Amino acid sequence: MSVQTGNALEPIKRSSPRFESFKTFSKRLMKNKAAVIGGIVILFIILVGIFGPFLLKTDPNAQNILNKLQPPSKEHWFGTDNFGRDIFTRVIYGTKLTLKVGFLSVFLGGIVGVTLGVVSGYYGGVIDTIIMRIMDVLLAFPGILLALAIVSVLGGSLTNVIIAVGIFSVPAFARIVRGSTLQVKKLEYIDAVRALGAKDTRIIFRHILPNILSPIIVQATMRIATAILTASGLAFLGLGAQPPAAEWGAMLSDGRSYMHNAGHMVMFPGMMIVIVVLAFNIFGDGLRDALDPKMKQ
Amino acid sequence: MIKYIIRRLLQTIPVLIGVSILVFSLMFLIPGDPAQVMAGEGASQQTIDNIREKLGLNDPAYVQYGRFLNNAIQGDLGKSIRSGRPVMDEIKIRFWTTVELSIYSTILAVFLGLIAGIISAVRHYTFTDIAIMIIALFGLSMPNFWLGLMLIQWFALGNLPFGDMPPWLLEIIHMRPSGWGESWRQMILPVITLGTGGAAIIARMTRSSMLEVIEQDYIRTARAKGVSERIVIYRHALKNALIPVVTVIGLEFGAFLGGAVLTETIFAINGMGRLTIDAIRQRDFPIVQGTVLVISLLFVLVNLLVDISYKFLNKRIDLN
């Protein structure tokens, strides 16, 4: 498109609608100070998880019995545990484990949940009924119980926790995606694309999924917080990463027996869980408000 | 109304069957031979065969499921591998402890959550609102097992973050009013541990639901007519704002039943949660199946009651 200015024809620069909506979204997100702080904390924690272990010179599993149960000091910022291991080092190493469980389980649950939700919402009928009744069954296991039941039979390990927490996340994704798909598939442009002869897979991947990304992203961010809480709960019960892995929930569990004289053993790993979960919750809230302003109103 | 209740009950049946299939299938998820796993390492072939025979693992899966369902309907959930006692008996003696803990936690969560949510909505976008919502966000993000440990450290061991608790405060905390039993005191910390997260969720939900209702025309009309603010909030706004909150309360009660697993472990409470964890550690799967099944059934029933309560809260809701 161009307009005539004087004698020359100058092209008007127009950005794509998607870029424009991204710009509006970023502006809204940046206005939300809490969300920005949450985002910065998440970024910082990711960096700590990736690079932290390389910057530390101490081994997270290095024992020094003579130095056990030391309170926080200049040498040991978070003190030492019952084996004389440096809790700060273990907390930093644990960051990677925690983020790994959080991201991978939500990724797994997201892939399965989104697929089931789209198929259910798009095709409807018997497929929809079957999928949604299965989701109802999964939702009938309250709180941590489903993940707990799965890990109890598969055995306690980090991989099994990721699988269990992933399955635990599936119904939440499936329900939200189904609802959004039902809304989008009724829109006229979907009818138009179908009339042009587009196949179902093309309609789903090119026209439905890009338009329901907002609730998926918000859900994923919020679910990471839940996944971290659930996984650390399982580790606390001894059903997560096995010793001597520096998992925050497992560290809390180790510290239980020494609370009367070494409260720092439970204080710091717990604080880290709170900070990470809080950051994801705040950022998720901000994302939701920025992506769906109607919801905020 | 009765039609709706019957229809809703019928809708629950497939979910209950699904839950029973999933709980039954847990046995098949065990890597390797379930009888071998339950018998433990180094068990003799005779022991393994006995377990297999006892659990009927030699039969085809559908026969096993049919038997499981038939027995479960009659209240027979099999026998514990370790104690040899019926699973139902093991659950019965612990059932009310967990339900009691969940009910008290729900009461605390509803009480705190509603008050905080209403204050926050009435004073929206003020310092009070922001402070309450920040506290709620913390409550939401705090692992309840950590909160439990911190409460033990502060109030049971008397180690506050900045030094020891003064003796007079410890005396008050450990004081027992005459005529009160010991059990209520043992429940205080577990109930706070379990209820805090739920209170945060209810507070957030109440606030957003109230804000939505407060902006409705009928509230404006009530105010224009000169109805006092107290009546506007409590009689007109809250009643309608409560509908979505009731759903959350139902879900939270369920979450407390599930969350009791952690809380009971921390406070050494002999409820169904602790029974589940002990059974998992001892690989006593009939007990695991039994507790998971009972807790899930209870959760489904509570949600059914919540759905039915909608009609009483708001007559305009079309249940069909």
Task: Describe this structure as you would to a colleague.
The complex is a heterodimer of chains A (297) and B (320). The longest helix of chain A is centred in the middle third of the chain and has 37 residues, at 87-123. Chain A has helices at 17-31, 33-55, 87-123, 125-139, 145-154, 158-185, 188-195, 200-208, 213-236, 248-255, 264-291, 293-296; strands at 2-5, 8-11. By secondary structure, chain A is mainly α. Chain A has twelve helices and two strands. With 320 residues, chain B is mostly helical. Helix content of chain B is 77%, strand content 1%. Chain B contains 13 helices and two strands. In chain B, strands 1-2 form a two-stranded antiparallel ribbon. In chain B, a hairpin with a 2-residue loop joins strand 1 and strand 2 (163-164). The mean pLDDT of chain B is 85. The chains are: A mainly alpha (297), B mainly alpha (320). Chains A and B meet through helix 4, helix 5, helix 9, helix 10 and helix 11 of A and helix 1, helix 6, helix 7, helix 11 and helix 12 of B.
Give the topology.
The complex is a heterodimer of chains A (297) and B (320).
Chain A (H helix, E strand, L loop, with lengths): L1 E4 L2 E4 L5 H15 L1 H23 L31 H37 L1 H15 L5 H10 L3 H28 L2 H8 L4 H9 L4 H24 L11 H8 L8 H28 L1 H4 L1
Helix pairs in contact in A: 1-11, 2-3, 2-11, 3-4, 3-6, 3-9, 3-11, 4-6, 5-6, 6-9, 9-10, 9-11, 10-11
Chain B lengths: L1 H28 L4 H6 L5 H11 L5 H13 L13 H36 L4 H15 L2 H13 L2 E2 L2 E2 L2 H7 L9 H32 L2 H8 L4 H38 L5 H10 L3 H29 L7
Helix pairs in contact in B: 1-13, 5-6, 5-9, 5-11, 5-13, 6-9, 7-9, 7-11, 9-11, 10-11, 11-12, 11-13, 12-13
